Amino acid sequence: MDKKAQEVLRLLENDARLTFREIAEMIGISEDEVREIVKKAEDNGIILKYKTLINWEKFGEEPVYAVIDIRVTLTREKSYDDIAKRIAKYPEVHAVRLISGDYDFQVVVKGKSLKDVSFFVAEKISTIPEVLTTVTHFVLRTYKEEGVLLFKEEEDRRLAITP
């Protein structure tokens, strides 16, 4: 992809609500060019999804997120890709990553409660024959998501000390 397409994609990645006209004005190309770049990116699987980032805590819901480290054993029949595809099919799973280090996969899971996530690990992940061990880390608080700070900078209320 050329530099114009890269600029269009970066703008959309930062704010998917931008119109083709706004993007065209920002970059200095025609609206039709932007439309063509976006269509081509969608058709080629470069743009996978348009997403809204929601702070559910402010809405009053408090879903439970967990990061699960998984160590697996490979067989002739089952590769990393095979295992990852199986794990990724569960609706509770938000991300599956092959990682370096002591574990093979990092899986991000969303549930309604600690119990939900615990059952998911015990009943679905741990029962996969290739899974050797898991370590579950529950997310206690998220401060930044998708590059967006989820808190406001608070004013320093401490009294100034003067000699």
Q: In words, what does this structure look like?
A:
- The protein has 163 residues and is α+β, with helices and mostly antiparallel strands.
- It folds into two domains: 3-43, Orthogonal Bundle (Arc Repressor Mutant, subunit A); 56-141, Lrp/AsnC effector binding domain/regulation of amino acid metabolism (RAM) domain (Alpha-Beta Plaits, 2-Layer Sandwich).
- The chain contains six helices and six strands; from the N terminus they run H-H-H-H-E-H-E-E-H-E-E-E.
- The strands form two sheets. The protein has a four-stranded antiparallel beta sheet with strand order 2-3-1-4.
- Strand 5 and strand 6 form a beta hairpin.
- Helix 2 (20-27) packs across helix 3.
- The protein is flat, with a radius of gyration of 22 Å.
- The mean pLDDT is 92.
